[in-house]
Amino acid sequence: MSYQGRNAVVSGERARSRPRLFEEVRGRLRAKHYSLRTERAYLGWIRRFILANGKRHPRELGGPEIETFLTQLAVRGKVAASTQNQALSALLFLYREVLRVELPWMENVVRARRPVRVPTVLSEEEVKRLLASLEGRASLLASLLYGTGMRLMEGLRLRVKDLDFARNEITVRDGKGGKDRRTVLPASLAGPLQQEVERARTWHQQDLRAGFGEAWLPHALARKYPAASREFGWQYVFPARRRSLDPRDGRERRHHIDDAMLSRAIKRACGNAGIVKPVSAHTLRHSFATHLLEAGYDIRTVQELLGHKDVATTQIYTHVLNRGGRAVLSPLDR
Hints:
Strand content: under 5%
Strand order of the largest sheet: 1-2-3
Pfam family, one: Phage_int_SAM_4
Domain Core-binding (CB): 16-99
Domain Tyr recombinase: 117-330
Organism: Luteimonas endophytica
């Protein structure tokens, strides 16, 4: 066989091996119940790692190549520490969970600097202006995030059964770190949330009549309670207007609304409300915690409502208690 012919065979084998590798990674991620967001991120980093090394198969690479790749991200790419850590986690998953290769400890990696930042917090007056500039479901969802301290995806993934109107309580399932917790259901949102639940009920009944009506359930629950996915209690509080194909199994379901909808609405509302601070959905969570501490609530209570593992994480919100930086009263104001 000629040199060119051998090269063509090798290139063909590599081209066939890459899709198989990605399929193996995807299958392992789903077997371990990683989220679709994490799946997309990990596959993206693995693809970048392969391209950065001349499209060589990861089995031909190892610790030194990973060190170089991560260092280049920090030095040339100037990525954030969290971005570099995500890339490292993706490659560790690839080698440990898929290729079954133990990597040496990578002590020579140049670490991206982790900046120390305080969270952006809106004043109560700014929150009112922001919420007044929102409409429809975006307004209700933003109000819910501010009124409960939930993260954006926790709010979007809320199920009907986890709203307890009698106790003014919301159960947040499978939050960050896989933990459940309870938070307050604002009395002022009880009526609008009940209307949203009735909308979800109407769409669910229509889906059932059309032969659909399944909600996605975590794998263990889906196996244990095979009929639960069609029960109304498991439907999303904020369902999407249209059904879509679930990329995990190809089944047509009604998922929750897209998180980008709220992000776009908040950006427009900030412009209309004259708010110049950088505001995201997570800013509402920061504001919830800060305003509770300003109102005199115990930091342990706020910690439990937010679902923080360590109270030290919650203490970051004490930076704006009533008097600005570190709750210090300026000598000019004495």
